[in-house]
Design a protein that fits this description.
By secondary structure, this protein is of the alpha+beta class. The chain contains 13 helices and 18 strands. Helices cover 31% and strands 26% of the residues. The strands form four sheets. It has a five-stranded antiparallel β-sheet, covered by helices on one side. A five-stranded antiparallel β-sheet has the order 7-8-13-14-15. Strands 2-1-3-4 form a four-stranded parallel β-sheet, covered by helices on one side.
Length: 400
């Protein structure tokens, strides 16, 4: 099995600890970093531990064994699927300052033949924990980040060799640079500058036109654009959470979606008054139908654009973290069903602690967030506050 050399893993750990963990802006000595790492990513364990210890932080590792999820779903009853150990989770969110998660799969088909509804119940059971975590993050007392460690199974799923798969990770994360952390800061600064321009434009709508379809989204003045950052490594996207109440359009996605251990291909969604009223997929359509039956999961929670000039991802990776940042010829556009981003709302964040306020503005409170991607060529035109229009994205690049 191909394993990255020690220098690459050291650089990767350096990026995750000294850039991704809130970019080092407010991390303090003796902060607690909770690291979740699968067994198949074991070579990355020691480099991460070393980087955290050298930063004078406390590491807590959760080492996740391979090939145990299938047995859980086969054996668990509804009570166990819906169980959330809130006393433990509350202690964990109170204790830790930062969360670092390594994405790695030893078998992408481990959950084949497991009923997706079982997995959906498990995701829903974590909703209360996510809300606690989000509140601590809004209070600037918590940060999180995630990254990808390539495995033979993941490379096979993407129809790439192990070397090709890991080479995409190396290039995308700038691990071939002499100083990857410095490079990340430079690229992130450029992306944030584009974000600031979009926010200053006071965009009311964006109109996305593909060759045979289009999508119009309401932004409004109470929304903000967010960008890049450190939560996902890599991340080159600029995104917002639109006002979904005014969506009456149809959109098709040319990139496959991996969800609940299955591949869903050629997804098409039709919206009416903010809700998905029709959904179809050429492959695994029933899983898509089951997904949109979940509470709050028929609304758009995110609209995102990636500029082809910033990303070095040139292959389909069969992993959303990379595929939502893909370069290819025309960058990518993706929307997410269903959870919205707190940081995309331009008001007192403490209001988001009030469930009734969330309901009054249709704030999506789903426990899910599923990105669906298209790399088709498109033109994005913004309608500004004064009624004028401006093309902001064309041929895979921002024009601002």
């Amino acid at each position: 099995m191909y394993t990255p050399n020690e220098e690459i893993l050291r650089k990767y750990a350096d990026v995750m600890v000294n850039f991704a963990l809130r970019n080092g802006k407010w991390i303090k000595k003796w902060d607690v970093v909770f690291v979740q790492i699968p067994e198949c990513a074991k070579p990355f364990y020691i480099p991460l531990q070393t980087a955290i210890l050298k930063a004078w932080w406390h590491p807590i590792f959760q080492y996740l064994p391979d090939w145990v999820s299938r047995n859980f779903y086969e054996q668990a009853n509804d009570g166990q699927l819906n169980f959330s150990p809130m006393k433990y989770l509350k202690w964990r969110i109170d204790e830790i300052t930062h969360n670092l998660f390594v994405i790695a799969e030893s078998d992408l088909h481990e959950l084949d033949w497991i009923t997706p509804s079982k997995m959906m119940k498990r995701v829903a059971s974590n909703k209360a924990y996510r809300e606690m975590r989000n509140k601590k993050e809004r209070d600037w007392k918590f940060s999180w980040t995630c990254c990808l460690y390539g495995t033979p199974a993941m490379a096979k799923e993407a129809n790439l060799s192990e070397e090709e798969y890991r080479d995409q990770i190396v290039k995308a994360c700038f691990l071939d640079e002499e100083d990857p952390v410095k490079k990340w800061k430079e690229v992130n600064t450029m992306i944030q500058q584009k974000r600031d321009i979009l926010n200053d434009m006071k965009i009311q709508y964006v109109h996305v036109v593909w060759p045979d379809e289009d999508l119009k989204l309401k932004i409004w003045s109470d929304r903000l654009w967010a960008a890049g950052g450190w939560c996902n490594i890599p991340s080159f996207e600029i995104f917002t959470s639109p006002d979904c109440r005014d969506i009456n359009w149809r959109v098709r996605f040319n990139q496959p979606l991996y969800r609940y251990g299955n591949l869903i291909e050629w997804i098409e969604l039709e919206f009416k008054d903010g809700f998905v009223v029709k959904a179809s997929a050429k492959k695994n359509n029933q899983i898509l139908q089951d997904m949109i039956k979940i509470e709050w999961m028929t609304q758009i929670g995110e609209f995102s654009l990636t500029d082809a000039r910033t990303s070095k991802i040139t292959k389909f990776m069969a992993e959303t973290l990379f595929d939502e940042n893909v370069w290819w010829q025309y960058g990518n556009t993706h929307i997410a069903l269903w959870m919205w981003f707190d940081e995309c709302f331009n008001w007192d964040q403490s209001k988001l602690d009030n469930p009734e306020f969330k309901k009054s503005i249709w704030l999506n409170m789903s426990a899910e967030h599923v990105d669906i991607i298209s790399t088709a060529n498109r033109t994005v035109t913004a309608t500004l506050q004064d009624g004028s229009e401006k093309v902001i994205y064309e041929n895979g690049m921002f024009t601002i």
